[in-house]
Automatic annotation (TrEMBL):
One GO cellular component, as annotated: protein farnesyltransferase complex
Organism, as annotated: Electrophorus voltai
UniProt-recorded Gene Ontology molecular function terms: protein farnesyltransferase activity; zinc ion binding
Basic and acidic residues bias locations: 391-412, 443-456
GO biological process, one term: lipid metabolic process
Catalytic activity: L-cysteinyl-[protein] + (2E,6E)-farnesyl diphosphate = S-(2E,6E)-farnesyl-L-cysteinyl-[protein] + diphosphate
Protein name, UniProt field: Protein farnesyltransferase subunit beta
Cofactor note: Binds 1 zinc ion per subunit.
EC number(s) reported in the record: 2.5.1.58
CDD domains on file: FTase (cd02893)
Pfam families (UniProt xref): Prenyltrans (PF00432)
Description of how the protein assembles with itself and partners: Heterodimer of an alpha and a beta subunit. Heterodimer of FNTA and FNTB.
Chain positions covered by the region annotation Disordered: 391-456
Keywords assigned: Lipid metabolism, Metal-binding, Phosphoprotein, Prenyltransferase, Repeat, Transferase, Zinc
């Protein structure tokens, strides 16, 4: 492990030079930016007064208690997410996974039974029991079930003729649902009669690859549609012609990675766009040009770097660093640990905002990306603060020792389990199965540069 860098960047003399210079021209956005910078200055100043030795700590126990409670009880504030309930399961389970906190068997079983109630008879999952199937909760539910990884969890995706499930879910139905939202131009709508955007493509690609139901026709034309979302800025918009945005850019790029077409993007333009989204003073990322920092973009933006790194490596880029992602990893960790933690547990967008499970999930995911580079022989860590701040440590160690990547392992587990029952076979669409291989595949170099965290 590399030594912890001290002193902290945000306490250095030169850090103030990174504050916004508006050249004497005030705008609505420059005023907002100043406000955020002032609130961060205040947080840093209080921290400095209280701590002689700056050793930012990840509040593991507080986050764990907050997450554990959320699996059973939600406050009234979550009423507005009544159509996103599988997301709450996913955000909490993924956060617990990053913190390496096991889920008790009884709780895991309850989550499975709840998600089963969200499943639609038309295939796919809805945002809550009795609602219509939708690609976003389908992504959340399938990923949450694969995190649990129990027979019961896989049984919710495909009962494999087990009569204890009524109606019995199958991957054929899931595939039917994906075809029902596929559009002739290769894009997908979020639900039958719903809107098209690049989130839907990623949700469909993630779900289809995890459950091993990709067919030659399911994603026909999809890569060309995604490529048309990359605009002059270098990032991707929600649909062709829209402004580049971190969430959409991650979704489009990750979908292309799943489809094996990421090298068709203008990778250099994308790299320039995403690295320019890391904020000079704050250290965190903004979602779009001229917007404010937000903790959740620690994943949506920083998560692009491992994907880009791998794609550029495949392109034979010899100038790539083999020890670090191409962003300021310490600055991001400083922002997340000093500015985005609620003392009572849970993480947040920026100082002054409330904690929530969405930001907890993606702030922790971003922290993990900033801490870990590559895996196996090329694994480098940069863990700011104490040793206990390291996320996903044992999974990392196991991955290194066994020569396998943690995420790849989960995908392998899920696809092996589901494909052991045989692939679904819709008429005229023979499935294109993922190779159910151990991590030590033929192209070891490619794997070395796999994303260390969630390429979800
Ligand atoms: Zn956010």
């Amino acid at each position: 492990m590399e030594p912890t860098c001290q002193p902290l960047r945000c306490f250095s003399e030169s850090h103030r030079l990174e504050l916004l210079n508006d050249d004497g021209v005030q705008t609505v956005t420059s005023v907002e930016q100043r406000k955020v910078e002032r609130s961060i200055q205040e947080v840093l100043s209080v921290y400095q007064q209280v701590h002689n030795l700056p050793q930012p700590a990840l509040l593991r126990e507080q986050h764990y208690q907050y997450l554990k409670k959320g699996l059973r009880h939600l406050s009234d504030a979550y009423e507005c997410l009544d159509a996103s309930r599988p997301w709450l399961c996913y955000w909490i389970l993924h956060s617990l996974e990053l913190l390496e906190e096991p889920v008790p068997a009884a709780v895991a079983s309850d989550v499975c039974q709840f998600l089963a109630r969200c499943q639609s008879s038309t295939g796919g999952f809805a945002g809550g029991p009795g609602q219509h199937a939708h690609l976003a909760p389908t992504y959340a539910a399938v990923n949450a079930l694969c995190i649990l990884g129990t027979d019961e969890a896989y049984g919710v995706i495909d009962s494999h003729g087990n009569e204890c499930w009524h109606p019995s879910p199958t991957r054929e139905k899931l595939l039917d649902f994906l075809y029902s939202v596929k559009q002739p131009d290769g894009s997908f709508v979020m639900h039958v009669g719903g809107e098209v955007d690049v989130r839907s493509v990623y949700c469909a690609a993630s779900v289809a690859s995890l459950t091993n139901i990709i067919t030659p026709t399911l994603f026909e034309g999809t890569h060309n549609w995604i490529l048309s979302c990359q605009n002059w800025e270098g990032g991707l918009g929600g649909v062709p012609g829209l402004e580049a945005h971190g969430g959409y850019t991650f979704c489009g790029t990750a979908a292309l990675v799943i489809l094996g077409k990421e090298n068709m993007l203008d990778l250099k333009a994308l790299l320039r766009w995403v690295t320019s989204r890391q904020m000079r003073y704050e250290g965190g990322f903004q979602g779009r040009c001229n917007k404010l920092v937000d903790g959740c973009y620690s994943f949506w933006q920083a998560g692009l770097l491992p994907l880009l790194h791998r794609a550029l490596f495949k392109d034979g880029d010899r100038t790539l660093s083999l020890s670090s992602w191409m962003f300021e990893r310490q600055a991001l960790q400083e922002y997340l640990l000093l500015c985005c933690q609620n003392p009572g547990g849970g993480l947040l967008d920026k100082p002054g905002k409330s904690r929530d499970f969405y930001h907890t999930c993606y702030c922790l995911s971003g922290l993990s990306i900033a801490q870990h580079f590559g895996n196996k022989d090329l694994h480098h860590e940069l863990v700011l603060g104490k040793e206990e701040n390291r996320l996903d440590a044992s999974a990392r160690t196991q991955a290194r020792e066994s020569g396998r990547d943690g995420e790849l392992e989960r995908k392998t587990q899920a696809t092996c389990h589901l494909s052991s029952w045989g692939p679904p076979s819709p008429a005229g669409s023979p499935p294109m199965t993922w190779p159910c291989t151990e991590g030590g595949s033929a192209d070891m170099k490619r794997e070395v540069l796999e994303s260390p965290v969630d390429a979800h």
